[in-house]
Design a protein that fits this description.
heterotrimer; A alpha/beta (about 260); B alpha/beta (about 400); C mainly alpha (about 625); A: about 260 residues; C: mainly alpha; two-stranded antiparallel ribbon; about 5% strand; globular
Chain lengths: ~260, ~400, ~625
């Protein structure tokens, strides 16, 4: 494993809001091809942590090294250019475009054609868009209006969009929120397969513990802003501190979050 | 009378070009444009005035035997729309000449159109000096006494006042600015001893009268020049009365004696202002009596200044057409230059040098009578006496 | 010292009616998200009805009773409008309600003249408040003192209403989150109606209370509506306190500003608004708007380029239009040129609004700048027409580049109001800088060169440029840039996450749009042979909005149809009737009800429904099963 390069290195990351420590001195690393889960009860600081990694939030202190670059203070779009794909807890896609066009926009951006006023987007990287859609199993829906898609399909489309810049790292915020159980497993299997094939590192947060323990190579557990445990699923499962925190939540996925995602 | 075509919108555009010429033999058409929908308070009496004139002319046998028809269009207060209307009148109605307009910018727009398309234009009401002078052209004539003339008439009276400290209140646009500029220039020539202590420029139609009155009062002038009119004037007068601005101060005011502006002030009319205007109740000349009787008989209403302007515009147009006995613009110009004719205010002449008519105005003082504003001590000032020398005029007009 | 104190009080009195009207607008916007253009019309109606009542009924009771009853009567009219008209179009695309209320405003302007006549009316002075109070030698009208006392009372009353009643709590909740109230099972319809009634009541009361100090006339609405929008935006939309503070701020700045710069009042409110919006994008007391939810009516049918059949049809229509000179006269051709120019103008705004999601309320600025650019080049520099036509629009480009940079930092209504402020600033420069622009009297004599002077030649020129402009804009819509722009509009979050610099993309779109508008303006200057500040004015900006909305904001090129229909109807009506505003307003209201997505948008929706009804429905049901 030591030959595999480090994609992401986080050191002493901290953020507080008006005296409340949302994230307190968190450090971890992520390697290529590794699937890392970030878990913790509500308010543990997962989202804050995530937002700082993808540039939507700036840490008070600490360092984030992504693919050899210090990314603190960079905008999300700059971080994307480094090779980071991203999916959101509530899907963010372009509802007035077709499924294929959704992917094509990302490809346009990747190809630095954003200010091309004269080309035809319809023919731009059409094959590549098709390939990405096939990869996530959405090839048959390429011409369909995005606004008509079912929620599970939107999640898969988002994955295709996130893969458009040939990322080295995928950041997935609650990738299976709002999905039916069978769909969750399918989506995570798909993600894991792509990650392994293309040697992409994946960092995801998740409430569904079945998903976490089945797919994560390693798990980080946050509580009240601090990292309290880190290790393989077996190690984390056996950790008494983690068990104590999750006692109330029963180490299973929390049904409330299905509704919260607005399926 | 003016709604000749009843066609679908699309059709009208396509067909409009072809309509028109059918009745050309037995009638003469004049195109008329004014801001009817934007300024109904001024253009309604104006319309009544010209309608009366048309009736009289046709009752007397028309123009050299041909019936006079006026086709009237609304410009909505927009120069661009006035040009569209002018174009319609000229291109598809084939009118012999254009007349009308109230606002200075619209008068200028139509005047420029007339110059470009070589159409005769008799501007009725716009006051700007530019229309006959700096932007004057050979196709444009103007009936009403200009800004300069009204200023000169007022200055004659204002110079007699003992006041040395003057303040001005004028709407913040070209009319207000040039009225103040001309008044200041002429006044300073006659009275080098006076001082201008404050000037207020409220936006036209949007005066915030309280602060303006307060600011003028703070400068403590002995006399005030007012150029605001309409609703702005009402607000100014009300605030000024309540706050005592006009107490012990002389006020000289453009146009305020015109019934259009004086009547809405009702019992709040300030007394003793020196104004230009139209005291229809006080004019005892045969020319005016005849007009007044006919007007009151037809409308059971008294005339405003706009009625006079509308009436005389069409009377002048008819006189021009009769003399030229042609609708050729060049012949119309030749006929108009130097043409004299009667008017309710007495004889007027269209000057050859700048195409300005010598129609004058009444200068007098405001007073309150039976809860209504009136003009008293009014004297008719002939326009011809309040124009600069020919040499000066010639310098102003583009050659 | 006494003078400054009295000037301060005078400013407060001026603030009173501004506050009353602004608070009503703010409440209505907060809950219903309607930009109620007719608010000024209700203010004016309040003044007219109060005039009639106070003339009719004498004495103190007659006066004060008349004021309150007038406001109640107008509020009832407001309820009628809300129930009959607005309820039908709550689910139409954003800003569509603006179109409806604009139509109403036009109608009211003519209706008041029909009912009350054209003359300015002088209302009664308030019994007991006729005179002035002496304050160290300065006079303060006692009615001013009454107004100064009234606005905090109204403010307090509204505060109590919103804090202490169940209805008020609902209103506040709805202001925060409209969907949540619907979820609570509240009868949203009646909540909206009652809020609208309260807002209109306040506007009418503001108008009625002006009769002792103002003249009642048919232009009162336009005089106040823009200022009120500005006050609401400076204060922060939906904030009553904000409206109060902003009204006082604007009035005091005016009261003291005229002591130093007597010409400032014409531009002051817009300067203040521009500064406030640049420094505090959500107004003084406003909160950042929650991420905009998708408008319910928003189409999910993705745009596509024309099919070959549609393309042939468009070319056919163009060829047909090009044949107009064969059978039409000079007037029809000039009208045709004007329509073609407005197609360019409307298409430019449509590009910004519909592709960029940025509704500019001041688009005439760039149209007018193009026109002035041409006028300067042709008149001052004496350049030939071709050169002026090519270079003139660059002034529009320059204006769009400068103003657009600031404007795209904002979104939604705030973007709209900042563009309005910029347009008004440009307008007042043109209006006041007489030495350069000729002020109100404009620049004359900008006529075309000989080769384009004939009505047919000019028509062909305008038509060709319009066709070119619309085509180029369409190409851009389907270009990679167009997709980047739509992506930014659809989801700022997602587009940022795929490397799109949304502000730069929007800025570029703004510049493109402003330049195209400038091209329209340049042609307009030559069509009319002159340029006036009107071509930068609010009413032209509103016309452009109306054309876009009428065509259909969710379409690719609906503005083309919108412009043709609106402009043709407008020119024809103005030519045919003095009641053109009444008829045009009625026409707009009818169109709004008949075509809730705009003409082209509604036609497209009908076609799509027909085309897709069978094959898609089966698929849709299967997808829903999966979703569950």
């Amino acid at each position: 494993m030591s030959m595999v390069p480090t994609l992401l290195s986080v050191q002493n990351l901290s953020k507080s809001y008006g005296g409340v420590h949302a994230v307190r001195s968190v450090s971890f690393e992520l390697r290529a091809g590794e699937i890392l889960a970030l878990i913790g009860p509500n308010g543990a600081g997962k989202s804050t942590c995530f937002d700082m990694l993808n540039g939507q939030n700036t840490p008070d202190s600490g360092r984030i090294n992504l693919l050899g670059e210090d990314t603190v203070g960079r905008k999300p779009r700059a971080i994307w250019r480094l090779g980071v794909g991203r999916t959101f807890q509530i899907t963010a896609t372009f509802p007035t475009m077709t499924v294929r066009e959704n992917v094509q926009v990302a490809l346009v951006s990747y190809g630095r054609q954003l200010f091309n006023l004269w080309g035809s987007t319809a023919s731009y990287a059409r094959d590549e868009a098709g390939r990405l859609l096939d990869l996530v199993g959405m090839g048959a829906y390429a011409g369909r209006p995005c606004g008509e898609l079912a929620y599970g399909d939107l999640k898969r489309l988002e994955l295709a969009i996130a893969l458009a810049n040939q990322p080295k790292l995928l950041l997935m915020d609650e990738p299976t929120a709002g999905m039916a159980p069978r769909e969750r497993i399918e989506l995570m299997r798909l993600t894991a397969r792509i990650a392994r094939e293309q040697s992409i590192g994946v960092l995801f947060t998740e409430h569904d513990m079945d998903v976490v323990f089945e797919h994560a190579d390693r798990i980080l557990v946050l509580n009240r802003g601090s990292l309290i445990a880190e290790g393989s699923p077996e190690e984390v499962r056996g950790n008494p501190q983690v068990r104590a925190i999750y006692l109330g939540e029963g180490l299973v996925y929390d049904a409330r979050h299905r509704e919260g995602a607005g399926a | 009378m003016r709604r000749r075509h009843v066609l679908g919108a699309g059709l009208a555009i396509a067909v409009a070009g072809m309509a028109g010429s059918a009745m050309a033999q037995s009638e003469i058409k004049i195109g008329e444009i004014n801001s009817y929908s934007l300024l109904p308070a001024f253009t309604e009496p104006y319309r009544k005035g010209w309608q009366l004139a048309v009736e009289e002319i046709n009752a007397a046998g028309g123009i050299n035997g041909k019936k006079l028809v006026v086709i009237s269009k609304d410009d909505g207060g927009k120069p661009a729309d006035a040009q569209t209307a002018a174009n319609e009148l000229v291109s598809s109605e084939n009118v012999a000449m254009l007349t009308g307009t109230f606002l200075s910018n619209i008068g200028l727009a139509v005047s420029d159109f007339a110059n470009q398309k070589k159409v005769f234009f008799l501007a009725a009401e716009p006051l700007t000096d530019a229309i006959t002078w700096s932007k004057g052209n050979r196709y444009t004539f103007r009936l009403r006494p200009s800004n300069y003339m009204q200023a000169a008439m007022l200055v004659e009276e204002a110079a007699k006042l003992p006041a040395k400290r003057w303040a001005t209140i004028a709407p913040n646009y070209e009319y207000g600015q040039s009225a103040v500029a001309v008044f200041k220039k002429l006044m300073s020539e006659k009275r080098p001893d006076i001082q201008w202590v404050d000037e207020q420029w409220p936006p036209q139609g949007k005066i915030d009268a309280g602060p303006v009155v307060q600011a003028v009062a703070a400068a403590n002038p002995e006399a005030i020049l007012n150029v605001t009119f309409g609703a702005d004037l009402v607000k100014l007068v009300r605030e000024g009365n309540t706050r005592g601005l006009f107490k012990g101060r002389s006020v000289v005011s453009f146009l305020t004696g015109e019934p259009e502006y004086l009547d809405p002030l009702k019992e709040e009319t300030p007394e003793g202002w020196i104004v230009t205007g139209y005291p229809w109740y006080d004019i005892k000349t045969p020319d005016h009596d005849k007009f007044l009787k006919a007007y009151q008989a037809k409308y059971s209403d008294y005339p405003r200044l706009g009625s006079i302007v509308g009436y005389q515009t069409i009377k002048a147009a008819a006189a021009i057409l009769a003399k030229a006995n042609s609708t050729d613009p060049e012949k119309l110009i030749a006929a108009t230059e130097g043409l004299s004719m009667p008017s309710p205010f007495g004889e007027i002449t269209f000057r050859k040098i700048d195409h300005q008519s010598t129609l004058g105005a009444y200068v007098g003082k405001t007073a309150l009578k039976d809860g209504k504003g009136v003009m008293v001590d009014s004297v008719y000032r002939k326009g011809a006496d309040y124009l600069p020398s020919d040499a000066e005029v010639a310098k102003q007009r583009p050659q | 010292m006494a003078f400054y104190f009295v000037q301060f009080l005078t400013g407060l009195a001026s603030a009173a009616s501004l506050f009353l009207v602004a608070s009503g607008l703010s409440i209505i916007f907060g809950v219903t998200r309607i930009v109620n253009f007719a608010h000024g019309a209700f203010y004016m109606l309040g003044a007219y009805v109060a005039f009639t009542l106070t003339e009719r009924f004498s004495g103190a009771l007659g006066f004060w009773g008349g004021i309150v009853v007038a406001a109640l009567i107008v509020a009832a009219v407001g309820v009628l409008v809300e129930m009959v008209l607005l309820r039908r179009i709550y689910h139409a695309p954003e800003l569509f309600q603006l179109l409806a209320t604009f139509g109403l405003t036009l109608m009211v302007q003519d209706i008041v003249v029909l009912i009350w006549g054209p003359d300015d009316l002088l209302g009664r002075r308030a019994p007991g408040f006729r005179g002035a109070v002496d304050f160290f030698g300065q006079n303060i009208p006692s009615y001013d003192l009454f107004l100064i006392a009234l606005s905090p009372i109204v403010l307090g009353g509204l505060w109590l209403l919103f804090q202490r009643t169940r209805w008020g709590v609902l209103v506040r909740a709805a202001t925060q989150d409209r969907d949540m109230v619907a979820a609570l099972g509240v009868n949203q319809k009646w909540l909206f109606t009652s809020v609208f009634a309260l807002g209109v009541f306040l506007a009418a009361l503001g108008g009625a209370l002006q009769i002792p100090r103002d003249a009642v006339h048919h232009a009162l609405d336009l005089r106040i509506i823009v200022d009120v929008f500005v006050v609401v935006v400076i204060g922060g939309l939906g904030s009553i306190i904000g409206a109060f503070v902003a009204a006082v701020l604007v009035s005091e700045l005016n009261a003291f500003g005229i002591l130093i710069f007597p010409k400032i009042s014409i531009i002051l409110v817009f300067l203040v608004m521009a500064v406030v919006l640049i420094v505090r994008p959500w107004g003084l007391f406003g909160k950042p708007e929650a991420a905009a939810r998708r408008t319910p009516g928003l189409t999910v049918n993705p745009w596509r380029p024309l099919t070959s059949g549609e393309r042939s049809m468009s070319i056919g229509a163009l060829v047909l239009a090009a044949m107009l000179p064969l059978f039409a006269g000079n007037y029809a051709l000039t009208v045709g040129s004007e329509i073609a120019i407005f197609v360019i103008f409307a298409a430019s705004l449509h590009f910004l609004m519909s592709v960029g999601g940025l509704a500019s309320f001041g688009h005439a600025a760039y149209f007018g700048l193009g026109a002035y650019g041409v006028a300067f080049l042709a008149k001052a520099a004496g350049l030939p027409m071709i050169v002026s036509l090519l270079l003139g629009p660059l002034l529009g480009l320059l204006g769009a580049a400068v103003f657009g940079f600031f404007a795209v930092q904002l979104s939604g209504v705030y973007f709209a109001m900042l563009t309005l402020a910029f347009a008004q600033i440009v307008w007042s420069i043109a209006f006041q800088w007489v030495a350069v622009t000729g002020g109100d009297n404009g620049i004359l004599g900008v006529w075309p060169d000989k080769w384009a002077a004939g009505p047919a030649s000019f028509y062909w020129l305008s038509l060709a440029i319009a066709a070119l402009a619309v085509t180029v804009l369409r190409v851009i819509v389907f270009s990679p840039f167009g997709f980047a722009l739509r992506a930014t509009r659809d989801s700022p979050l997602r587009s940022e996450a795929i490397g799109i610099d949304g502000k730069r993309v929007q800025w570029t779109a703004f510049v493109i749009s402003g330049t195209v508008a400038g091209i329209g303006g340049a042609l307009f200057a030559y069509l009319k042979g002159s340029v006036f500040p009107d071509s930068l004015g609010i009413s032209l900006s509103v016309d452009a909005l109306v054309m876009v909305l009428l065509g259909g904001v969710e379409t690719v090129s609906g503005a083309v149809i919108g412009a043709i229909v609106f402009k043709a109807a407008n020119i024809w009506l103005v030519s045919q009737t003095d009641l053109s505003k009444l008829v045009l307003g009625g026409f707009i209201v009818l169109m709004v009800v008949a075509f809730p997505k705009g003409i082209v948008g509604t036609l497209e929706a009908i076609r799509n429904r027909r085309r897709s009804s069978e094959p898609k429905s089966a698929l849709a049901t299967s997808r829903i099963e999966v979703a569950e």
